[in-house]
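Re-run with default settings, no changes from the original entry. Doing this only to confirm the output is reproducible before filing.
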Amino acid sequence: MIQIKRIYDSFDMREGARVLVDRLWPRGVSKEKARLDLWMKDIAPSNELRTWYNHEPEKWKEFQKKYKKELEEKTELLKELKQLEKEKNLVTLLYSAKDTERNNAIVLLELLRK
């Protein structure tokens, strides 16, 4: 099973493998507090796409399309996440965006569940 969670939310021992899927390290979060198993910054949207999107809700649909297109080039990283899921049974994809309904982790989760 793969789930998503905001990295600023409280830690829970039942989250399985914790994987940060943002390109930038989250502000105000120490490495100890993050309790990461893996940081996959290369699976995050490119700097160009991230900057273009700027978390503007009206760009959400286009952002999803563009990010999915970028993910087509990252099959090895997607396989790595699926393998981690097999090994740990549970993987929590962590993101830092304030918007819990429109962020890269949602797009990534949708793609991984297919």
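The first strand starts at residue 2 and ends at 6. The helical segments are 31-34, 47-53, 60-71, 75-88, 104-113.
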